[in-house]
Amino acid sequence: MLNVLIIGNGQCGNRILDSINKQAMNRGSTAKEASGGLAKYISKHKYHSNVQTVAINTAINDLKEMRYTKAKDRIHIKNLHGVGANRTIGKEVFEQQKGTILRNVEERGNFDVAFVITSASGGTGSSFTPPLIEELKKTHDFPIYAVVVLPFREEGTLYLQNAAFMLKELRDGPCDGIILADNQYLKSIGGNVQDAYDGINSMIARRLIFLLDSLDSEMMMVTDLGDFKTVMKGGAGLATIGYFKADNEMPIRTVIQNALSPRGLLFSTDVYKEAGRAMIILKGDKKYLGMDDVSAEIERLTGAVGHVFKGLIVENGSLPEALCVLTLNSAEELESLYEGAVQAIGIEKDKKDRVKKKKEMESAFMTIDGMDPEY
Ligand code: GDP
Known about the structure:
- The chain is an alpha/beta fold.
- The chain folds into 2 domains: 3-216, Tubulin/FtsZ, GTPase domain (Rossmann fold), CATH 3.40.50.1440; 241-328, CATH 3.30.1330.20.
- The protein has helices at 10-26, 31-35, 39-42, 60-64, 87-106, 124-139, 157-172, 183-186, 193-215, 225-233, 252-259, 271-274, 291-305, 332-366, and strands at 3-9, 50-57, 74-76, 113-119, 144-150, 177-182, 238-245, 275-284, 308-314, 321-328.
- The protein has a 10-stranded mixed β-sheet, with helices on both faces.
- The radius of gyration is 23 Å and the shape is globular.
- The protein starts with a strand and ends in a 9-residue tail after the last helix.
């Protein structure tokens, strides 16, 4: 059985972690049981692996908002005024208080793999995640992957520049790979912001749970943590995940195509142009997993990508599902985010210069303080 650590940093990370715990808890429950107020007290997380979850935040209210994550798994890092969206403050707070976090993780024993989930653009998660991974890597040799949520592009200059710096720090550091999810790309989920967040969070949660299950499952054809590591080593250190579950009878080829299309992906990419390596896991009743169909579709992907690991999980009576982990050699969407970030940094710099000029103006006014006009 795999030992898995999942850390959720900051508000976005906390909420996605809570969504993962919610889905793990509700497995096998009826909708009524799952939505019942007592669900969280009487249910247990039903992970296939030994999964430990830790939520970290400077904002106590974000931690209190969590409904499916145990109190002992929530770490409040005290900082009087939060960190705003200021990563410089965030990094200072992490440096001062990292002992609390590292001790908590240490007490949980050893792991085979870890995931750290965060937004790229806020304050706490964005500034804590790169140094946290660096600290953990000093004393552990298990792979650590960051699951990073990119901002809606209209959220403003500070978020955009935070995202750009945060991703660069992660890539320059010892993180074993970055799995991208993009709020902007996924916003078509619709509804108000909260509904969109909930929808996106549960999409990410579902994909991660499926991935963990399949790394720890007795498959007809096996993929394992070793294969996942190899896939994540490919490409430019960036990856994303596609997933699709049929809600009616559907050929497996269509299920795979849907998982690799905007319906299934967490990040905007043309898989056939940008992907570097891939791992596909298919699940469902045997009647959907015909070898000829599966091979035909996977060969198409292999032709474009180079190497595709594949796994099949037979589940009697289940409609077909497909999950695909893709590492990316290039990412046009990320390049345009960086162009936006460069502009954002320019705008913020201009604003600072203007404030400086305003101060000079104020001191010009002050030069005549206490004086009277002479005629
Ligand atoms: P932190 O608490 O200081 O780390 O900041 P946040 O996690 O709130 O980071 C702000 C960014 O995260 C913005 O781009 C938000 O759109 C995004 N965000 C906040 N909450 C959620 C959420 O629940 N789900 C998703 N997908 N994004 C979120």
